[in-house]
Amino acid sequence: MAIVVGLVLVLGLGGFFYLDRAANKPQPPPPPLTGPARAYAKYLKLTNVEMKAHESYLKQSVVEIEGNIQNAGDRIVKTVEITCVFYDAYGQVVLRERVAIVSPKIGALSPEQIKPFRLPFDNIPESWNQAMPQLVMAGIEFQ
Predict the structure, then answer these.
(1) What pLDDT digit, counting tens, does each position of 65-88 carry?
(2) What is the DSSP string of 30-64?
(3) Which of 69, 60, 49, 50 is nearest to 121 (CA)?
(4) What pTM does this model have?
């Protein structure tokens, strides 16, 4: 009986550590912009971008970046992702987050169309310099 209990315990611990290690494995980085997407990025314009801060119902500070994206090109864009890079007072990166501003859930962005976007952040470290983050085109998919 003691051997069976010991065997079950060893197998259970082995399974736990295997699953724990698999769960903590970092996600692979998203693919970089492809050649056609990089060339088309100049036709996607961010306008009226502003940053606002307010307190949530849970007394957390929430920073929102709002603005518009315009497709000045001739292709229908299904997805646009940008990377928001927040810095501290010394110019060091404190947060880098990739977010979608155009997605299939919201709807595609047709040529000459303008769509508003809103990006809420509640996980910015206290060391952030309170300045507008750098917004970099990170992903573009065409329809």
Answers:
(1) 999 999 999 999 999 999 999 999
(2) PPPPPHHHHHHGGGEEEEEEEEEEEE-TTS-EEEE
(3) 60
(4) 0.72
Separation of alpha carbons 6 and 82, rounded Å: 52
- DSSP code, position 112: T
State the residue for tokens 């010991």: 6
Q: Which helix (H) or strand (E) holds 2?
A: helix 2-23
Residue 20 phi, psi dihedral angles, 5° rounding: -65, -45
Of 1.20.120, 2.60.40, 1.10.3120, 1.10.760, which CATH number belongs to 35-142?
Answer: 2.60.40
Return the beta strands (E) in 1-133 as ranges: 44-55, 61-71, 77-87, 93-102, 114-121
Q: Domain boundaries in the chain?
A: 35-142
